[in-house]
Specification:
This protein has about 425 residues and is α/β, with parallel strands linked by helices. Helices cover about 35% and strands about 25% of the residues. The protein has ten helices and 17 strands. The strands form five sheets. The chain has a six-stranded mixed sheet with strand order 1-2-6-3-7-16. It has a four-stranded antiparallel sheet with strand order 11-13-9-14, covered by helices on one side. A hairpin with a 2-residue loop joins strand 4 and strand 5. The termini are close together. It binds zinc ion.
């Protein structure tokens, strides 16, 4: 356990560097890093800036450039730096992303999204919260540990990755493929959080987006028996799926704000353009978020069975497509080392009582959990990602820097 004195030196050194941290944050936010799949220039210029800064501060940088012909310059950069610890075989990694979503309609912004503006203790800019604050906080946490020459129980490092906002195909997924992480690593993904920093996310739901295309036979509405009303078949299928799935997958998990799985009919495509035609085709969608305790394959089998019944009953064909499928990895245990480590840092440094939570959305944390690597997701944010006038509170930036710096010193567990 680290001495009070060491923790005190570390936190006052972060306080002493607060202005420099804020200034650096502003400089980084000026560099547009909108994801190239969303029409932006990508991470390259921001990565070059970050790489030189890390090197200027005496850190060796590992850079993984992933080829992407769809990005200006043809590459997607991923950066890493770390400090060696006593146990060189294990790493505590803070993983944040460099890319952002576009600014959206400029009319909705009170300030220039790429000229950070500080007002009432908040820094307004695209990417300030998602994921700039955490990127800068973890980077400066590392620099503070280096500057104070703090002896570390294991290696501590950061990864600044590409492409989180689209699908992580040129970021985390590539790094995992290259075996850059180990099951014994401790992973912190500061890319979701809560306003007081109380929530430590340890579980996510599986995600399934499905499209159902029901075929019928289009005829005049006055002679319905001549045709087959695809809309009626589609509606019945949607309500039966709704009833069946919600009735079967009823287990609850109190970690989640919405404690059960959800199976929701959502989007509906237009069918015929006029009222007096029986639709010959009908398309609807479901958004499913399934608790990690369930196997997604079982859910899919139930859906396919229901479709078969309908095809038989109506003598027709129904096409079923999965447009998004992300199975959840196992929830990270509350008594895993990384969960204990972070909750200690949160209670001791941020001085709030941490609680473990699950979320219905997904972060890259899930990609690590799927590989069997325990992962927690945490940061102190007001939760305004992707919104116009996105901001980060300076107090949260400094607070989280302290938490990240102190966390490795509060073990061994
Ligand atoms: Zn993010």
């Amino acid at each position: 356990m680290a001495s009070e004195e060491l923790i005190g030196r570390l936190t006052s050194s972060v306080d002493g560097g607060a202005q420099a941290i804020q200034d650096f944050f502003v400089r980084m936010l000026r560099i547009n890093a909108v994801n190239p799949r969303m029409g932006g220039p990508g991470e390259r210029e921001r990565a070059d800036f970050l790489e030189s800064f890390l090197k200027e501060n005496g850190l060796a940088v590992t850079r993984v450039d992933v080829e992407d012909s769809g990005a200006p310059g043809g590459i997607r950069p991923n950066l890493s730096a770390k400090l060696e610890g006593k146990d060189g075989k294990r790493n505590l990694w803070y993983i944040s992303h460099m890319d952002t979503v576009p600014e959206g309609s400029r009319d909705l912004w009170k300030t220039d999204p790429f000229e950070p503006t500080i007002r009432d203790g908040k820094i307004f800019a695209r990417g300030a919260e998602d994921d700039g604050q955490s990127l800068v906080a973890s980077l400066f946490a590392l620099l503070m540990l280096k500057k104070l020459e703090v002896p570390l129980p294991y290696s501590v490092g950061i990864w600044l990755v590409a492409d989180e906002e689209f699908a992580s195909n040129y970021g985390i997924k590539q790094l995992l493929k290259r075996h850059l992480f180990k099951e014994s690593d401790l992973i912190v993904v500061p890319d979701s959080g809560s306003p007081r920093g109380t929530d430590i996310e340890i579980a996510e739901k599986s995600l399934l987006w499905m499209k159902f295309t029901t075929k019928g036979k289009q005829v005049h509405a006055s002679l319905p028996r001549k045709g087959l009303n695809a809309h009626r078949v589609g509606m019945r299928l949607a309500t039966e799926l709704d009833d069946t799935l919600n009735a079967k997958y009823r287990r609850r998990n109190k970690l989640f704000d919405y404690p059960v799985s959800s199976f929701e009919p959502t989007k509906k495509e237009a069918n015929v353009g006029n009222v007096n035609t029986i639709p010959g085709m009908d398309v609807f969608y479901f958004d499913c978020r399934v608790l990690p305790v369930y196997n997604l394959g079982e859910v899919e089998n139930d859906i396919k069975k229901k479709i078969k019944q309908f095809e038989k009953r109506y003598h027709t064909t129904i096409k079923f497509e999965e447009i998004e499928r992300e199975p959840a990895g196992p929830a990270t245990a509350e008594d895993s080392e990384v969960a204990i480590l972070l909750s200690r840092a949160v209670s001791r440094i941020a001085k709030v009582k941490p609680r473990f939570v699950g979320i219905g959305g997904q972060t890259v944390g899930n990609l690590f959990r799927r590989e069997g690597i325990p992962t927690v997701v945490w940061s102190t944010i007001d939760d305004v990602p992707h919104e116009p006038n996105e901001y980060s509170k300076v107090a949260n930036l400094i607070n989280d820097t302290k938490v990240f710096a102190a966390a490795p010193l509060l073990g061994p567990v």
